[in-house]
Each structure stands twice: as structure tokens, then as C-alpha cells.
Amino acid sequence: KIVLDAGFGRGDFLDYLVDMGTEPERYIGLEAIDAMADAAEQRHPGAMILRADFIQEPVRLFVGADVVVFSGSLNTLKRPDFEKTLRVGYQAAGEALALNFLSSQRLAGAKHLTWHELKDVTRLVGELTRDYWVIDDYMEGDTTIVARRPEKK
Q: What predicted TM-score, i.e. pTM, was given to this entire model?
């Protein structure tokens, strides 16, 4: 699969995939912070790193990815930007959107973080598709939702 990691950071999610033996066919990291993108390029010379802010330029999410991943990258967004970005990310995904977010006030206690209640996020995802699942049994207050797009005929 072609994976877009929006908010790539240093590439921690790609490290996880490699460690799990599930390295994708092609990996695209989208990162707005130059220092993070520089570090990612050093750690992952095989990944394509795009430098852009997908909040300011949502069109940058449309890179032909099968799977669009937001792995913690939306934790700083207030509700309107969170919802808008999630909707655009779903539209940009060829097959699925994967979203990891803080669903606990305790974990998102820092002033720069925003927590989103699981029921609110599942309601929003449910408006996009009925084909989704929630994974929240690995760490209290940290949740992953995978939303599949309908198969194209």
C-alpha cells in the first residue's frame, strides 16, 4: 500500500510499521516543521518527505495514498479544524483513514493539546462511513479509529 503519514514528525509510525514487519510499498511523510522533516530524512532516506502544513493547505493530503494516517498529529487542533481535517483526510484516502488521537483529558492535559471525546469522534466518522472500527484497548485515553472507504467498482 501507499501510505501518507500526515504530521510525519521524525517518522515514529514508520519505525513501528517496520518493527512489526509491515513496511508499506511506498511511504510518504507530510511534515510542516523543518527540523522534524530534516530529522525524518536522516532516519528514513527511503521515505518521501513532503514539507507542507496540511491544516493550512488541505489539498496537500491528496497524494494518491491508499491509506492516510493521522498518528497523533491532530491532537493540537480545536474541534472545527479537527473535524474539517478529518473529513478532508478521509476524502484523500483511496482505501482507508487511520486516526490516532487522545481521547482523555488526563493525557491531553498540556495547554497545547486538545482532547476529543470518543463518542464525538465516532459520531463524525460514522457520518463518513459505516465501515469503521475503534481500537482503544492498548492504553487508556489513547484511541485509534480506522475508517474504510467504499470499494470502487
A: 0.91
